[in-house]
């Protein structure tokens, strides 16, 4: 992944994997993430003012800050990715550019415990804000005479837009990133075992530890179709 790019010119994995850092890919993902985060934060602020529950926003902010910026996510997920092998203290990859690197690169696949932790966090991230926004709509409807139509409609619109932004983010991940990501043991990864095997044949260090963990190299019998569109989309 971090070898000289001239090694990629005749690589059989060209356009089958996002195994080279491309800033445009990261910018594209961030452009789908920002609307969701802003809408979710806005909805939780609504909940803070009315019905006066600030702890959902505090919990959301604390959990996401700890997971992203205090090393939890980089340990359970990112440290297993070939992009993490780059020298330096800041990660550069299509999904998590800018995160601090607290740990050493670990080429082995994620453990079952790490996958559970990551899955719980994903479920929290995708449902916490939306869940509380729906509760806010219920509270507003229950106290309609006090809060009025404007508040109820505004929160309903924010909730609907949050749901749309969450779905859009997941679709972008599953369509444009997860099928091409070299962090193969991530629960959301969708790279075929044939392509994983082909990549491991080019990465002896990673291949060795993956085989020790029980991964069986599958010989490729059919060349997978290349994805449509430009590689940096």
Descriptive notes:
Keywords: Membrane, Transmembrane, Transmembrane helix. The chain crosses the membrane at residues 26-48, 54-72, 116-138, 144-167. With 233 residues, the protein is mainly α. It has 2 domains: 17-191, no CATH class; 193-224, no CATH class. Helices cover 56% and strands 0% of the residues. The chain has helices spanning 23-49, 55-69, 72-76, 112-142, 144-177, 193-201, 204-212. It starts with 22 loop residues before the first helix and ends in a 21-residue tail after the last helix. Mean pLDDT is 87; it is low at 228-233.
Provide a count of the helices.
Answer: 7
**Mean model confidence by pLDDT:** 87
Structural class, by secondary structure, is mainly alpha
Roughly what fraction of the amino acids lie in strands?
under 5%
- Element-by-element helix/strand order: HHHHHHH
Number of domains: 2
Got a strand count? 0
Poorly predicted segments: 228-233
**Gyration radius, to the nearest Å?**
21 Å
Q: What is the helix content?
A: 55-70%
Biggest sheet architecture: none
Mass-distribution shape: elongated
Taking the alpha carbons of the first and last residues, their distance comes to 19 Å
Summed up:
56% of the residues lie in helices and 0% in strands. By secondary structure, the chain is mainly alpha-helical.
Secondary structure blueprint with pairings:
Blueprint: H1 23-49, H2 55-69, H3 72-76, H4 112-142, H5 144-177, H6 193-201, H7 204-212
Helix pairs in contact: 1-4, 1-5, 2-4, 4-5
